[in-house]
Specification:
With about 325 residues, the protein is mainly alpha-helical. It is built from 12 helices and 2 strands; from the N terminus they run H-H-H-H-H-H-H-E-E-H-H-H-H-H. About 75% of the residues lie in helices and about 0% in strands. Helix 7 packs across helix 8, helix 7 crosses helix 10 and helix 8 packs across helix 10. The longest helix is centred in the last third of the chain and has 39 residues.
Length: about 325
């Protein structure tokens, strides 16, 4: 176990180093940050002086080495627009994004397992065919179109749900307010969470169905049928447990991916999370904020993958974490 963690930490450091290099390398293609900082009335000489003060005229490797040295100390730069540490600005928006992902994950887990298992057990029934047909459509429809459709139906036409923002939140700490403890906040969460879950829900339903059908054809399941074991025990004790092993592997990575997918969902619903902040940072050429966002998302991916590997090893005793 110790060797597994050491190896994963080394791999995580290498991955984060690559992410930091790529994120920092694209900064020159995001526009001129001085445009937003200084405005139109500042002379070219003053702009150049400001560029020297910010270190923007230094060679790329010098800038990257300076950034890397500061990043090790938790300093990812200062936001040009907010005039605050970029990491602090990102962390203020992180709870909103994480709550959106948690809401979408709850919908995915709650619906995908029963629907996928039912479709595998009764593949010829009309309900199973409807589930698979709807999941095919769900994969094909872009997330922003799903969000706009939900807003038009439930907000504009029926007036049942709010269409934008987080609503009322409950302040837990200085940088952490949550929608989970207020009714208005939960109502604001419903449509964005459904929209975000529409990306992964069809994938999980089809994945669980295909894995379940494959497990049901395995020899040990046939042997269980021959022994006269109750169908419910075969389906939910023998088959489902082995079905979930690959689902855990794929699911953990995909749930981490949803953090990046929140950009479109947060834009459609004006959800004040990291994704919405990232688009504003790109429009403002707020390079430290863009780089900090990419670093934080990369760190979430790395942490998620490590946790998934650990859970997979605990669920499947045949996996030797020391050799993983």
């Amino acid at each position: 176990m110790l060797a597994f963690f050491i190896r994963r930490i080394m791999q995580a450091l290498i991955v984060m180093l690559v992410i930091s290099f790529i994120a920092f390398a694209i900064k020159d293609n995001l526009g001129d940050p001085l445009r937003e900082m200084s405005g139109q009335s500042v002379s070219e000489a003053e702009r150049e002086l400001l560029r020297d003060q910010l270190g923007l005229n230094d060679p790329f490797l010098v800038q990257y080495a300076r950034f890397l040295g500061n990043a090790v100390q938790g300093d990812l730069g200062t936001s040009y627009f907010f005039q605050e540490p970029a990491l602090q600005v990102i962390l203020k928006k992180l709870p909103a994004t994480l709550e959106l992902v948690i809401g979408a994950t709850f919908i995915i887990v709650t619906l995908s397992v029963p629907l996928g298992v039912y479709s595998a057990i009764h593949p010829q029934k009309i309900a199973s065919k409807i589930i698979m047909g709807v999941s095919t459509v769900g994969i094909s429809v872009p997330v922003f179109l799903t969000g706009i459709g939900l807003i038009y139906l439930f907000s504009v036409t029926l007036g049942w749900m709010p269409s934008y923002g987080r609503g009322e939140t409950y302040q837990i700490t200085e940088n952490w307010d949550t929608v989970f403890l207020t009714r208005d906040g939960l109502e604001h969460l419903v449509l964005p969470a459904i929209t975000l879950s529409s990306i992964m829900l069809p994938l999980f339903i089809r994945l669980i169905r295909s894995e379940m059908m494959e497990v049901l054809q395995s020899d040990y399941v046939k042997f269980a049928w021959a022994k006269g074991i109750a169908p419910q025990r075969i389906y939910f004790t023998h088959a489902l447990k082995n079905t979930l092993l690959p689902v855990i592997t794929v699911g953990g990575v995909q749930i981490g991916t949803m953090v990046a997918y929140t950009i479109l969902t947060e834009t459609v619903f004006q959800w004040p999370g990291m994704g919405f902040l990232f688009l504003e940072a790109v429009n403002r050429s707020d390079i430290p904020l863009v780089v900090a966002y990419l670093m934080v998302v990369g760190a979430i991916f790395v942490i998620t993958n490590t946790i998934v590997d650990l859970i997979y090893g605990l669920v499947n005793p045949t996996v030797n974490l020391a050799r993983a």
